[in-house]
Amino acid sequence: MSRIEHFEEDSAPRANRVVPAASAVVVDDTDRILLIKRTDNGLWTIPGGAMEPGETIADCCRREVLEESGIEVDITRLIGIYSNPRHVIEYLDGEVRQQFSVCFACRPVAGELRTSDESSEVGYFTLFELATMDIHPSIRLRITHFGESRPDPVIA
Fold first, then answer.
1. In contact, 6 and 87? CB cutoff 8 Å
2. Which residues pair with 122 in a beta bridge?
């Protein structure tokens, strides 16, 4: 395991870095949600990752979904901005990142499901199936916020 996620833990290490990232709740035409199984911690998650210099946050979202799942997407709305200082990700090299992710709702427009270096499994799942999957609480929160169809994005 090359990373450890700490969520609302008093004993978590202090963040020493903030990296902008994008994530995506991708929903197909049968209301199933796209998830990938991470290779670094074994958890199921929505696609997402760090923003690269020279790209917009929307471009980051589309790139990360494509890289991790093989699916091209259109962004349909902003779900929220997540920057909880009590959610940090600890890496083996000593970096401890504070979460800072902009989460978008997306729909697939092209591509075929495939795995990558970051994903050992990829698929679309119903909400019923998601209930029994090993998903980090911060990702469940984003999926919940998506399902609430709020008139305004979450800022947390």
1. yes
2. 36
Question: pLDDT digits over 5-54, tens only?
Answer: 899 999 999 999 999 999 999 999 999 999 999 998 899 999 999 999 99
SS3 150: coil
Q: Yes or no: say if 107 and 73 are a contact pair by the CB < 8 Å rule.
A: yes
Task: Please report, as a single letter, which amino acid is at residue 100.
Answer: F
3-state DSSP call for residue 62?
helix
Neighbours of 107 (CB within 10 A): 14
Helix (H) or strand (E) holding 87: strand 87-91
Which residues, in sequence order, are CB contacts of 130 under 8 Å at separation 6+?
A: 33, 35, 143
Instruction: Quickly count: other Cβ atoms within 10 Å of residue 117's Cβ.
Output: 9
Domain 3-148 has CATH 3.90.79.10: yes
pTM attached to this predicted model = 0.93
What is the pairing mode between strands 154-155 and 21-26? unpaired
